[in-house]
Structures are given as C-alpha cells and as structure tokens.
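To whoever is on call:

I kicked off a structure prediction for a single chain this morning and the downstream step that reads the tokens threw a length-mismatch warning. I double-checked the sequence; it's 77 residues and nothing unusual in it as far as I can see. Pasting both halves so you can look.
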Amino acid sequence: MNSESIIDKKGRVCIPVELRKKLNLRAGEKLLFQVKEGTIIMIKATKPEEFIERSKIFRKHLQEVTDEPIPVKKIFD
C-alpha cells in the first residue's frame, strides 16, 4: 500500500487514514522512527501490557515445542 503526505511548516506529517486504519493507529499512540539507508522507518510502539501478553503467548507456545531452556543473550549487568 502506498500513500503520500506533505510535511507542513512545523515539520508535521499527517498519516493517511487508510494507513491509520490498517495499522490500528489512534490519537496519542507513540511511534518510533529509525533511519536506515536513507529511508525513514516508522514503527508503532508496543505498550507494556501488550508486550507482556504477547510474551505469555510466546512462552506457552515454546513450552509446547520444547522443555529445554533457551539461551538468552545477557543485555544487562
């Protein structure tokens, strides 16, 4: 799906309604921006509650697949 929008004088961009509907974006939601190879990537931020719920579903699925522990890269000291 391709859509276009124009940046206004204050640097704001309106996300076209068809994209907001498709991605279930609502007023007040946080978006993350990344720049990669000259392209701006916009990502809908995950709310902590959604992350926790998805983690529970993922964990349940993993338990159905294996009982072996999964090695996790240490990211905190």
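Update from on-call: the warning came from a stale cache, not from the record. Cleared it. Sanity check on the structure: The mean pLDDT is 86.
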